Amino acid sequence: MRAETVAANVLALPRLLRARGIATDAEHGRLLLRALAEVDLGKPGDVRAACRAVLVRRAGDLAAFDEEFDRFWASLRGAATWTDAARHGSPRRLPEPQEVPVGSFAGSAPPRVERVVRVIASAAEQLRARDFAAMTAEERAAAARFVERLRWSPGERRGRRFRRAGSGARIDARATFHRMTRDSGEPLELVRRRPIPQRRPLVLLCDVSGSMEAYTRILLHLAHALARRWGRVEAFTFGTRLTRITRHLRHRRADMAIAHVSHAVPDWSGGTRIADALAEFSRRWSRRVLGRGAVVLLCTDGWERGDPAKLAQEAARLQRASYRLIWLDPFSATAGYRPEAGGARALVARADDHLSVGTLDGLAAVAVALDRAGSGRPVRKQ
Question: Which of 235, 266, 312, 327 could potentially form a cystine with 346 if both were Cys, beta carbons 3.0 to 4.6 Å apart?
């Protein structure tokens, strides 16, 4: 293999890895070029080691990296390329109409002119009813992009500040009397005002235990989309402990934000102590983030290792403090599902809404429910 061939096509490898769900960006591309400048490009073992050191940050991504590197190296030797696969493969794996470069990786060929083929089919339409646990890495990436395009808005609330308004609004007595002092004490003009609407706060509590592993990443994409689109979002993860991840979701790119979250959460894919996590949230964070009519999204499957009675008590406490408590359960849409576990029964009795998030259709229903959540507080049994 000639070194010129590798150097001319090396940045195709990060594109392959991004298609597999491995987070890479322009900074990784620059580091990769610097790393490859220090090795012999004619030796595939040295090239593989340099690429792995720069592009792989999690042990779980090693298998996908090795597979894509083998495909990349085979394409340099003249085998079918990734771009050829994109041109001739099924459009089911592509998330939306997009531009796909068509060309070859042959290094001996003259500088190629990229042509563009328009892919019409949308993977999201074919994946809407498929459970996230049954999706491949590419399909989950397409589902994540679908989540980012949804409209997330829990509505607005009545603000404490007021502004001048026309007829029909309430009369501002103080401003009206002040105006009368300039008109010889005559009420010639009634000053009216109405409250300025404010965005309703949103709080997300996401279960990252082992039983939720197949759904955790897509739920974090949901949290990132909410934070980017709505802004007034506080996000927490819990398994065996509670972790605030609000600042990690401020990154513009979802894959980088989720990578930061995975490094910051110490109990990822561990056990579940929902009651203890809710108790810590109520003790440390409830007064700070649940004021001004906050809507709470509790994302968990309800599998509680602790006392279900304590979970029922903490769920009731959380419901009283929130404007609306919505339980997002990935299994509630499964055929024959019943909340028979003690934790699930405790949550279903206290949640104002019980919605499924196991499919894209379920997430779309959550977006609709959020849009209606701010229209009125639910009637709760005393």
Answer: 312
Tell whether 261 is covered by a domain.
yes
Q: Does residue 83 share a domain with residue 165? A: no
Number of domains making up the chain: 3
According to DSSP, residue 161 is labeled E
> Considering the entire predicted model, what is its pTM?
0.60
Query: DSSP code of 96?
Result: S
In sequence order, what DSSP letters do the residues of 203-256 get, joined into one string?
A: EEEEE-SGGGHHHHHHHHHHHHHHHHHT--EEEEEESSSEEE-TGGGGSSSHHH
| Tokens matching residue 39 | 């090795």
Decide: residue 220, CB within 10 A, 0-12 exposed, 13-18 middle, 19+ buried. buried
- Which CATH number goes with the domain that contains 303? 3.40.50.410
Residue 134: CA count within 13 A, CB half-sphere: 9
How far, CA to CA in Å, does 146 sit from each of 22, 107, 363? 18, 36, 10
Structural tokens at position 188: 């010639």
What average pLDDT score do residues 156-169 get? 73
